[in-house]
Specification:
Layout: E1 5-9, E2 15-19, E3 26-31, E4 37-42, H1 51-61, E5 65-71, E6 74-81
Antiparallel strand pairs: 1-2, 3-4, 4-6, 5-6
Length: about 80
């Protein structure tokens, strides 16, 4: 069993292994003003995606403003739309 794995015992004596810190992209949406939303995309660094390029691509694809914000140890693209 590796460092980041958790083992769970199932009925019948079987075991199931699951990664403790699974690599995933997280998308959250928060309200800025009454009808304006900010979408935060985090976890892209696990997949070797450059945040500046991702922000530029998101801005073009979704016709909104996009920027890279430094929050904590990692930077993450932010999308802002109405």
């Amino acid at each position: 069993m590796g460092e980041g794995e958790v083992e769970k015992k199932l009925p019948g004596g079987k075991t199931k292994k699951k990664e403790k810190n699974a690599k995933a992209v997280t998308i959250t949406r928060s309200t800025r003003n009454r009808r304006k939303m900010i979408t935060t995309v985090s976890g892209l660094h696990y997949f070797d995606v450059k945040n500046a390029e991702a922000a530029k691509l998101f801005g073009k694809k979704f016709a909104c403003g996009a920027s890279v914000s430094k929050a904590g140890a990692y930077t993450r693209p932010l999308l802002s739309s109405t």
